[in-house]
Structures are given as C-alpha cells and as structure tokens.
Amino acid sequence: MKLTKAFVLITCLIATLALTACGRKSAETKSAAAEKAAPVAVTTAVAAEKMIASGFEQTGSFVADETSDIAPLVAGRVLSTPVDVGAWVRKGDVVCELDHKDAQLRLDQARAQLAQANAAIRQAQTRIGWSAGTFDAEKVPEVAAAHANWTSAQAQARLAAADATRYANLVATGDVSKSAADKARTAQETAEALANAAKQQYEAAANAARQSFEVVSTQQFSRDSVNSQLAMAEKALADTTIRAPFDGFITARPIAAGEYVAVSNKIATIMRISTLKLEIQAPEQRASQAKVGNTVTARVAAYPDREFTGKIVAINASVDPTSRAFVLRAEFNNADSALKPGMFATAFLRQPGETPAVFVPKAAVVRDKTTDSNQVFVIEGNTAHLRVTQIGEETEGQIRIVAGVKTGETVAITGQTNLFEGAPVSAK
C-alpha cells in the first residue's frame, strides 16, 4: 500500500515536470517566432492626460414628453379618420369625425326654442315699458293714463273742497242760502269719491304692470334654461369632432370609418416628442452626486458621432429595495425629432469641477468582433503588448480610455492588423 502511494506521487511529479518543460518549450518557441518575425512598421502616439468634467456614466431609455390615448366624449359611428400612423398634427387638428346628424338636429331645435323665448320677452317688455333692463311703471301707457286721471280727479276734489268752504263761510254771513252751501258740499264729496276711484284705478294699473314685469323676469329665467340647453347641444355637436390635444405624432390609430365607438374606445395615440425625457436608473451610491439642474450628455446607437445635451429635471426620492437603484429623469430638446421614444442611450451625468482622464487618438482603438472588446497595442521598447481597454467619450478625434492604458504610455495608431502580443515593431 505504501509502495503504491509512493508510485502515484512519483508519477504525478514526473507529469508535472514534463508539463512545465513543455510550457517552457512552447513559450520559448513563441518567443523565438517573435524574434524571427520581421518588425511591424507602426506609427505611434503618446497617451495624454486631459482634464474633463467630473461625473459618472449610466444607461437609460428615452420616453416621450407626453403620450395620450385619445378617446371620444360621445359614442357614435366613425365617419372619417383624416390622420394615419406617423402623421404629425398640431393641437386642434381633426383626428376623427363621428356621425353628427342627431347632434345637429338637437342644436337646431334648441336654437328655435331660444328664438321663441326672445320673441316672447320682447313682446312682454313692450307692454310694460321696459328700458335698459329696468322697470318704470309710469312708462306703461295704461298706468300713465290712470295716473293722469287720478291727478285730474285730485285737482277737481281740491277745487270742490275750496268751493264748499267758501260757501260755508258765506252762509254764516247770510250772503248765500244754506241750500247753495249744501250743494257745494255735495259737489265736494262727489269729487273726492271720484278721486279715490281714480287712485284705485291707478294702483290697479300699476300692480298689473308689476305683474307683467314679473312675467318678463320668469320668461328671462326660462330663456336662461334654453340657453343652457343650446350650449349643451353645441357641445354635443362639437364632441363629434375629435381633435389633437397637443402637437405631436400619431403613433396608433386602431379605428376606421364605419366602426361604432364608445367613450371607452381609443381613437388614436399621440406622442409629443419635441422634448424627450431620458429615464436613468442609477445605483444608490450615486444618490449624493445627482442634482436637479446638472447637465447630462447622451449618445445613442443611431447617431454614434453625435452627442445630445440635456438637464436633470427630476430625481425619485426613493430607492428601489430590489435593484438598489433610484430613477433620474433628464429632459432633452428634440426639435429635429432625431431622438425617438424607446431609444437606448449611454448618458454621462456631469458634476461641478474637473477630473484627469487618459486620451489616445481614435485610431489607436481596435474593435475585436470575436471577443466583443476594444483593444489597444501598447509599445514598450520595440515590442507590442495587447491591452483590452474600456473606452469612454470621444472628442476632437481623441477617445477616452477609462481602463487599460496609463498616461504617458506609447500606443500604436497604424499597423494594428499585423500586430499580436509580443510582436516586434519598428516605430515611427
């Protein structure tokens, strides 16, 4: 048993020594191959340090500034849909027309009722001397005549009373007979009775006029009710025309002419994209670094050479307990409609101050499709060394190296297709 274990140990040791020897031989072979290979002519540049804005990079997706599923306010049959998906509409443009025959008939009926109410009011106003919305009983012809008759009767009664008094005095002096005085007193009583009757006629005429005024007021209230019905009929007719609530693009239109729609049906979907919002999920450790008003720059795959600039407009006050991230929202002007809702973006959230960064010429970075990585060849002496790098933003033909190359290192900017790890180079 002990001999067996010893034999196994010796066998493993021999195998290890053999593998080590093979490895050394393979390395020596590669080194020898590199030494025998002709130097690759390359052009070089030095990785430089530049001061850039402080901040951090995150990803996010663009969403529309406003999205509205347009629904009708009344049910009805669709007559026409003058817009289609992709159409750009202004606020108030017609999106859909519903059958409006019934609504038009109800509107015509309400207008006729209003005309009748106005005619009745004008007739009543004429009867009572209506002027500038006020009531003056003395301007009513019947009341004015009754008032004039009463005034005349009062004058006659005063004259008869004076005659009766004078005759009574003359009786006392013996200048007239008692029968003449009695006749004068009788005339006085008659005139006073006529005056009282004229007063009653005047008051009756005035009361009748006041009642007519109340009739006018009642008719005006009725007209107000008709006006309300007219306004409702006008709104019902207007509601058969569905209009865009704001400027934007039609992104869906699920109905067609001839269909019947209820108030719960969607007529169309409109998006406002003149301004877009970028929703970014940032890790909780960045919570103290994000501030409303900070500048955000974003890049999208559709425009690799273009940078879009916006500002943070909102920060969610809570952190998601599952992802341990919080949501930022940045607003971007999109007047040329280059950005589309749903686009994925890489965003750089800037902060006050600057920080050093390493930059190399754009030509130094080679994209390896096999490994899906960005690579740079660093030249040390006359030898090329392959570095897998993490890149950042690009500016003025220079690209930022986040990791993989240090400031002052020499990098190849031409001839990379002939380079490999340890390849000899002839640098220019």
Hey, roughly how much beta strand do the residues contain?
Answer: 25-35%
Oligomer class: single chain
Which stretches are poorly predicted, pLDDT < 50 over at least 5 residues?
1-34
Major β-sheet, in short? 6 strands, antiparallel, barrel
Helix and strand composition category = alpha+beta
Strand/helix succession: HEEEEEEHHHEEEEEEEEEEEEEE
- CATH fold naming of one domain: Helix Hairpins
Rounded to an integer, what's the Rg over CA atoms? 51 Å
Tally of helical runs? 4
- Estimate the global geometry from the Cα principal axes: rod-shaped
**Ends: how far apart?**
67 Å
**Percent of residues in helical segments?**
25-40%
Strand count: 20
For this structure, what is the CATH class of one domain? Mainly Alpha
* Mean pLDDT reading: 83
CATH architecture call of one domain: Orthogonal Bundle
Identify the strand order in the major beta sheet.
3-10-13-12-11-14
Topology, element by element:
Elements: H1 2-36, E1 40-42, E2 44-46, E3 48-70, E4 76-80, E5 88-89, E6 94-98, H2 101-128, H3 141-173, H4 178-238, E7 241-243, E8 248-252, E9 260-261, E10 268-283, E11 295-300, E12 303-315, E13 325-333, E14 344-361, E15 366-368, E16 373-380, E17 383-395, E18 398-403, E19 410-412, E20 425-427
Parallel strand pairs: 1-20
Antiparallel strand pairs: 2-19, 3-10, 3-14, 4-6, 4-9, 5-8, 6-7, 8-10, 10-13, 11-12, 11-14, 12-13, 14-18, 15-16, 16-17, 16-19, 17-18
